[in-house]
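User: Could you go from structure to sequence for me? I need the amino acid at each position, not a summary. Structure tokens:
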């Protein structure tokens, strides 16, 4: 299932849940899916892989960003930056964020997923 096209691209529907009614009773106790956690975080600020590791518990932000783009049709902007790495040596990483139009698309997706209210 897809949703209306936006600038020639369709917004993908949330992936269907495979849980039974018994599983849904424990759903409130389960942590949210990583893809939802990261996408929600991207609607609030930009992230690099080290920040995502520390604060979002995402050990592979570039792969998560790829999944967001490929599976959900939400374009994530990026630029290279230099940050302190192992023992203070500088290393280059990507900083990821959502442009305003993509942020709106992400918020609609999250609302459809029941994660945020779309006012």
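Assistant: Here is the amino acid at each position, in order:
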């Amino acid at each position: 299932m897809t949703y209306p096209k936006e600038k020639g691209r369709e917004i993908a529907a949330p992936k269907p849940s495979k849980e039974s009614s018994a599983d849904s009773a424990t759903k409130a106790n389960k942590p949210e899916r990583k893809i939802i956690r990261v996408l929600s975080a991207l609607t609030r600020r930009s992230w690099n892989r080290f920040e995502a590791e520390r604060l979002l518990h995402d050990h592979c932000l570039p792969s998560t960003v790829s999944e967001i783009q490929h599976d959900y049709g939400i374009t994530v902007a990026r630029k290279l930056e230099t940050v302190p790495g192992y023992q203070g040596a500088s290393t280059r990483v990507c900083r990821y964020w959502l442009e305003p139009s993509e942020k709106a698309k992400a918020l609609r997706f999250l609302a459809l997923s029941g994660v945020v209210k779309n006012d």
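One structural detail worth keeping in mind: The beta strands are 2-6, 9-12, 47-48, 77-84, 90-97.
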